[in-house]
Amino acid sequence: DEAIAKAKPEAEKFVPEQFKALTDAAAAAKANFDKGDYAAVLTAAKDLPAKAAEVMTAATAKKDELTAQWNELGKVLPAKALDLTDKIDALAAMKKMPMGMDAAKLEEVKGRLAEMKTAWAQANDSFNSGDIIAAVQQGDKVKAAAEWLQTSYDAIMPAPVAKK
């Protein structure tokens, strides 16, 4: 019980299916105890601390993986948001819109950029409150939004062709 209780906070969050298997095994051992099948209890109970340690190791590994993903998103997305903001501001400042861009499309792009920035702030809030899973999920959505914005921008403002 102590090993399971120690693993619970991280395991429930990061490897819930493995934690459920662990708690199911403990419940089965307790059911055998209640039935008086002490041989089955001893067999099951002796493996529980090792299983709890395995689950805790898996939870730590998953948490580390998600933290690494978050850190990578944190390196890329703020700079991408700034770059996109500059590009969209430059588009908005043009006296004549490029082909493929009109006022409605510009407003859509501005709205998506604002949504992306809000979502990034929410992802940061999730991370800072300890919800790494939600932060990474939100960060992935922000990344997808940034890719959409970049693709939309590239469609109307192709990169200049290098002179030979």
Provide structural commentary.
This protein is 85% helix and 0% strand. It has helices at residues 2-14, 16-35, 38-93, 103-128, 132-156. 18% of the residues are buried. The model has no long low-confidence stretch (mean pLDDT 90). With 164 residues, it is mostly helical. The chain is built from 5 helices and no strands.
Task: Give a brief rundown of this model.
This protein is mainly alpha-helical. The protein is 85% helix and 0% strand.
Defining key terms:
single chain, 164 residues, mainly alpha, rod-shaped
Give the biggest sheet: none
| Unreliable runs | none
Instruction: Report the radius of gyration as a whole number of Å.
Output: 25 Å
| Residues in helices, as a percent range | over 70%
Number of helices: 5
Oligomer: single chain
Instruction: Give the H and E element order.
Output: HHHHH
Report the portion of residues in β strands. under 5%
Report, as a whole number of angstroms, the end-to-end distance: 73 Å
Task: Give the CA-based shape.
Answer: rod-shaped
| Average of the residue pLDDT scores | 90
Structural class: mainly alpha
* DSSP, total strands: 0
